What we know:
It comes from Gloeothece citriformis (strain PCC 7424) (Cyanothece sp. (strain PCC 7424)). The chain is an all-alpha fold. The protein has one domain (4-163). The protein is 71% helix and 0% strand. The chain has eight helices and no strands. The protein has helices at residues 4-26, 29-44, 55-58, 68-73, 79-82, 86-114, 120-132, 136-183. It starts with a helix and ends in an 18-residue tail after the last helix. The model has no long low-confidence stretch (mean pLDDT 85).
Amino acid sequence: MPSGRTHDRITLWTLPWIIGLSYLLTRNGELTLLVAGGFLFSGLMFGPDLDIYSRQFQRWGKLRCIWIPYQKYLRHRSLLSHGFLIGTLLRVIYLLALLILLAIPLIAIAQLILGFDWNWRLFAQTSLNSLTGKYLSEAIAVGVGLELGAMSHSLSDWIGSAYKRLNSNKAKNTAKKVQKRRNKPQNVPLNSSKPRKTRKK
């Protein structure tokens, strides 16, 4: 499995290709920027390795504690953390849920102090309508970027593991062949049945 430094290099080396391909497909600089930003964020801070004490986890600084429950309930490199689409989707839902739980008491305190009205149902409906309507292209661009960043990480993990297994199997097969050669009985030449000649005195 590649190290954290190797994953970072893969992310940075792949970024120009992501930018070029995104612009080629969209012909839109804003959407290209959103895809590239999502890709960088996912590759460096929001990727599959948040399920362990990794570089991605450490980059959250003092906020990294929010990912501890995520780590406790998910096995490393499981389908829920490293799987296609589901891994990124679960992390987005997890982070949004934490933000909502944090926002509820803060907004309640602000309402008491400032005395303004707040309707959670209206806020959620307006946000959903914006994401599925006016800002649908932007939301898709960010989602694609996040998923591409996660998949570059997961694919490098799977390729690295497959390469190690292949080398391990080759080493085992070589060791077995050597052991068989050592254990193979050697043909010892039989003593000649001809009588020995005696020297005359």
